[in-house]
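Hi R.,

Quick one: here's the Aminoacyl-tRNA hydrolase sequence you asked about.
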Amino acid sequence: MTDGFKNIILTELRTQTSRSSGKGGQHVNKTETKVELFWNIEESSGVTSQQKKRLFEKLKNKINADGELHITCEETRSQIKNREIAEKKLWDTIQEALKKSKRRIKTKPTKASQKKRVDDNKKKGQIKKLRKNPLD
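And here's the predicted structure, written out as tokens:
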């Protein structure tokens, strides 16, 4: 992911601010420090159709009904810092969703583990045999 890609996404963002919740007294009641970022994935020009499909699959819980990725931040008392944190969260979320997961390499059980499994099963079978009533 390049800086050009990042700049395209940042220009396509829709920002909304509101009053933050929590502690802060009068300050929290007067200032709009909570930042919400909305990025419309479908209308984005910086992402290919294959990447869009992957984003929709991976981030379906963070995408609203309008098809926008929604990121919120109200960690600090500063709107500017909250915006920076939200942008970083957005960027990290996009990168994580677009990263391809490594394929798991299947491994075979070792000879020793196979032998141990067979021996354990035989031992269990013997124990169950001993439980049997000799008159049956």
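The two ends are 74 Å apart (CA to CA).

Cheers,
M.
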